[in-house]
Design brief:
Layout: H1 9-44, H2 48-61, H3 65-101, H4 105-118, H5 125-148, H6 152-171, H7 187-222, H8 226-239, H9 243-277, H10 290-304, H11 311-327
Length: 328
């Protein structure tokens, strides 16, 4: 009896409306959770900028106080991560400014070490890149110190090691979405390092040229070529840079000057002896004195004595014998 037991049409419409609202809520909730989960995942992967973008989308779907609070909490995490990344890259930027100017490379090393303390996860690409940059700067520092000490070969080796470490930093693929520019030497910093390498090479060449002139001077000195030796030592003096090199030049110049003075004394005695063999008095009468010439040649031989066997020694002996025969 009576009407069929079922929802009336108006009731059906209301139920449909409720079903639609529930479906919409499920879809909203799904979108909210999706964006929030994506934000967390990106934050874990150090992609802070993408994490914040995801949170902006999640915030559009957040409705309940709890959901809104979850968005706020996750934003704090993402902002903290972004700030950490900004600090890392700020230190990197400061270091590059120093390296470009070839100023205090040690200060750049310190900045990279500070950045490394902020990027503590060793598996992160940025941690590896920063570690390579610390190594590059440390080698660069060594190169500068060695170059100042006039050690060109060692300095060049240190600068080459710095280049290798910097290249390793450049080879590290940065984390997608990590704030700022990639951690590596920029073009100007690379140019500055290349300048250091050229300076090290110049020092190597200067040192080699200095040693060549010093060796040539010693060779001339060994051969009693005092004037030629002094010329070589003079060229070495122009190239001498370190206090030790300058002192070596002074020492060898003193030896060469002493040898030159000895040779001048020998030749002066020879000249005096010749004058004794052609002397005339005021009236033009011959006043030869070969005995004095013998004495002068003996004195010359005393100066040349340690160098027996040289042409000058043999010539002096012959001249003294000639004068002795003259006396006889």
């Amino acid at each position: 009896v009576g009407a069929k037991i079922e929802l009336s049409t108006p009731a059906k419409h209301k139920l449909d409306a409720c079903m639609q609202k529930a479906a919409a809520e499920i879809e909203r909730k799904t979108h909210f959770e999706k964006w929030l989960d994506s934000s967390k995942a990106n934050c874990t992967c150090r992609n802070a900028c993408k994490a914040l973008d995801d949170l902006a989308n999640a915030a559009k779907f957040a409705q309940s106080p709890a959901e809104k609070q979850r968005v706020v909490d996750q934003q704090e995490v993402a902002e903290t991560e972004k700030k950490r990344q900004e600090d890392v890259k700020d230190l990197h930027t400061q270091a590059l400014v120093i390296l470009r100017s070839e100023d205090d490379v040690g200060a750049a090393t310190s900045l990279y070490r500070q950045a490394l303390k902020l990027e503590v996860v060793s598996s992160m690409p940025e941690h590896r890149a920063l570690a390579h940059m610390v190594e590059a700067c440390a080698h660069w520092e060594d190169g500068d110190a060695l170059l100042v000490a006039w050690k060109g070969i060692e300095s060049k080796a240190a600068y080459t090691a710095a280049q290798a470490a910097a290249s390793q930093a450049s080879d590290v693929l940065g984390t997608p979405g990590y704030y700022g520019d990639k951690i590596q030497l920029d073009e100007d910093a690379e140019k500055a390092l290349n300048v250091c390498l050229r300076e090290a090479q110049d020092e190597i060449e200067r040192k080699a040229s200095f040693e060549d002139h010093m060796s040539a001077g010693q060779s001339h000195l060994d051969g009693s070529r005092a004037i030629a030796a002094l010329e070589e030592f003079g060229r070495a003096e122009e190239l001498a840079a370190s206090p030790e090199e300058k002192q070596r030049v002074v020492d060898q110049q003193e030896v060469a000057e002493t040898e030159k003075k000895r040779q001048e004394d020998v030749k002066d005695l020879h000249t005096q002896a010749l004058q004794k063999l052609v002397a005339t008095d005021a009236a033009g009468v011959s006043s030869l004195d070969p005995e004095s010439a013998v004495e002068l040649y003996s004195r010359a031989l005393d100066l040349e004595g340690p160098f027996g066997g040289r042409p000058e020694h043999d010539a002096l002996v012959a001249m003294r014998e000639l004068c002795r025969a003259w006396v006889s």
